[in-house]
Design brief:
- It contains nine helices and eight strands.
- Strand 3 and strand 4 form a beta hairpin.
- The two termini are about 25 Å apart.
- The strands form two sheets. Strands 2-6-1-7-8 form a five-stranded parallel sheet, sandwiched between helices. A three-stranded antiparallel sheet has the order 3-4-5, covered by helices on one side.
- It is of the alpha/beta class.
- The chain binds 2'-deoxycytidine-5'-monophosphate (DC).
Length: about 230
Amino acid sequence: MEKTSYNIAIDGPAGAGKSTIAKLVARKLGFVYVDTGAMYRAMALYFIRRGIRPEDEAAVSQAAPGAGILIRYEDGVQQVILNGENVSGLIRTEQVGNMASATSIYPAVRAHLLDLQRGLAASTDVIMDGRDIGTCILPDADTKIFLTADPHVRAMRRYKELTEKGETCNLQEIEQDIIERDQRDMTRETAPLRQAEDAVLVDGSQLTIDQVVERIIREARARGLKAE
Ligand code: DC
């Protein structure tokens, strides 16, 4: 498919703030924000509902084509549709996140989502976040950002988010979970999380959200994005 749009790829580990930042950049630039993690989460929900164990690659791979994933936008907010059902409100749990991380290692799962992700970016100005956007999905993205932050800072943010929601949680466990998920996402054979050679590294540990947003917009302007 020929590309007629401007694409920003933003990759990085869990909890680095990708989705918060990508949403704000999208709003400022009038772009569509594509959250690819939500697609893996919707597939994970499908596997959970079918009682499939994440270690069972054959069962996961056989089931994957049965998960019809579609993306829709309501008031600019991405909705994930799984076989006709809007599952956006059901995929933000730790259980689904861990299943998504565990099953996204399989080529059949990644292949199932590749065309959907590329198709969205081909005709629309998007900022797409994930783990392999700059390296695999959109290797020709106009601007590539690798957004990271110290695991302790990421754990603190997550802890704050959960306690504000009234959930009881343990900071050390969260940090351990983040370290394990990073490890799994970075060492898997298929499309591991890594910085593309031409990506700009942004460490958000000591930056405010607004500073990161401004930095990304500056990088995009330096790479041919026309000012509004
Ligand atoms: O960003 P997230 O936490 O919603 O993503 C959930 C899991 O999905 C993550 O642990 C790894 C996987 N994922 C992926 O493998 N590739 C992507 N482009 C996005 C997410």
